Amino acid sequence: MSTVRLVDTGDGSHSLRNDALNENYHSWHGAVTESRYVFVEAGVKEAFLLRDRIRVLEVGHGTGLNAALSLGYAREQGLALDYAGLEPFPVPAELLRQINYPSFFTDAEKDAFAALTDASWDQETAWGEQEHFIKIERGVQADFQGLLPAEWMPFDLVFYDAFGPEKQTEMWDKAIWKTCFDLLREGGIFVTYCAKGQVKRDLREAGFTVETLPGPPGKREMIRARKLPQNA
């Protein structure tokens, strides 16, 4: 991880930069702003319209920012959220502790971020009275269902937050979308910051109904897709 370093983004929050890939973990326009918009506003809040307890899978756990915002939001609203994140290259905890996210967080988000940072990998962790999370140190291949604990499936929401298609081509193979589709319950939601036409076409081919939403600051569009009930 020696090629990963802290950088500032437009809203004042930190991101990490992978110099080997020449790519940031988050938007230059604002790490926390982007994550709240794409994953909480367009994902978590939408999923909670369907039920008051949801289970989230994230492909690309990264710094844990999306997880902390999601867990914190659920607690503040008196709702329940379980989170599973896949990450092939965990960020060292000592680097995560240098990130200035807590300056932008609510108390619940701060607690969630601290718990995520301190938690062991590949071990289910209880957070509060009923929420659980697990960080899984694994890469992703086309059929990654076997990497996940069977008792966690199906999921209500998938966050797809891998590095962009130009940087990690293998993470945008269309076979992955079929796995995401199969892991979701009917009515489940998929969100990603990406809005490429090929990704939309491949998601539709996998069975998703695809929406193009306005993007976060600095980005024109993003994708939200749904696994609609078969009789819809």
Q: Mind explaining what this structure looks like?
A:
- The chain has 232 residues and is of the alpha/beta class.
- It contains 6 helices and 11 strands.
- It has an 8-stranded mixed sheet.
- The longest helix is centred in the first third of the chain and has 17 residues, at 31-47.
- The chain is globular and about 50 Å long.
- The mean pLDDT is 94.
> From the coordinates shown, what is the CATH architecture?
3-Layer(aba) Sandwich
Provide a count of the helices: 6
- The largest sheet has its strands arranged as 6-7-5-4-8-9-11-10
Helical fraction: 25-40%
- CATH homologous superfamily designation: Vaccinia Virus protein VP39
Span between termini: 46 Å
Helices and strands, in order, run as EEEHEHEHHEEEHEHEE
Query: What's the total number of strands?
Result: 11
As for the CATH topology, it is Rossmann fold
Mean pLDDT: 94
Provide the β-strand percentage band: 25-35%
What would you call the shape? globular
Structural class: alpha/beta
- Tell me the Rg in angstroms: 16 Å
Features:
three-stranded antiparallel beta sheet, 28% helix, 6 helices, alpha/beta, 232 residues
How are the SSEs ordered, and which strands pair?
Elements: E1 4-8, E2 14-18, E3 23-24, H1 31-47, E4 53-59, H2 65-76, E5 80-86, H3 93-96, H4 107-118, E6 125-127, E7 131-136, E8 155-160, H5 174-183, E9 184-192, H6 197-206, E10 209-214, E11 221-226
Helix pairs in contact: 1-2, 2-4, 5-6
